[in-house]
């Protein structure tokens, strides 16, 4: 689905990663910011935005899905920070020459192999079990890792 100049709201259409990539490239070029958009600089900016996103949840404890009790202003702020993270991620992938859409689909496939449904759907499966599955050679994708508890997206 592709956005055609509008907000994408209410028209049944959404924005694609390609749309975002083009908008970010145009935005940077129009402002002569390409010279500042090195992978390192974009990554550091992305980390900063993730920090701002984290601040929103910092003292709230566990937050239920749907954010019940949150004011509209808080949800709007959350959307802005999520957008900042996504935009920097899309720009970073573009500058690095990584097709983010393809990379995401490949990663989902790898995770499906690492975490087979029949071993993950049990009510007794915990994050610890998933981590030990991930760290075992049987479910390795060939990469060495020292990541912590897994949620299936690592």
TrEMBL record:
Transmembrane segments: none
Composition bias type Polar residues, residue spans: 133-154
UniProtKB keywords: Cytoplasm, Hydrolase, Magnesium, Metal-binding
Primary location group: cytoplasm
Annotated EC: 3.6.1.12
Record flagged with keyword rRNA processing: no
Annotated Gene Ontology cellular component terms: cytosol
Catalytic activity: dCTP + H2O = dCMP + diphosphate + H(+)
Subcellular location: Cytoplasm, Cytosol
GO biological processes: dCTP catabolic process; DNA protection
GO molecular function, one term: magnesium ion binding
Function summary: Hydrolyzes deoxynucleoside triphosphates (dNTPs) to the corresponding nucleoside monophosphates. Has a strong preference for dCTP and its analogs including 5-iodo-dCTP and 5-methyl-dCTP for which it may even have a higher efficiency. May protect DNA or RNA against the incorporation of these genotoxic nucleotide analogs through their catabolism.
Protein name: dCTP pyrophosphatase 1
Annotated organism of origin: Dioscorea zingiberensis
Upper classification of the organism: Eukaryota, Viridiplantae, Streptophyta, Embryophyta, Tracheophyta
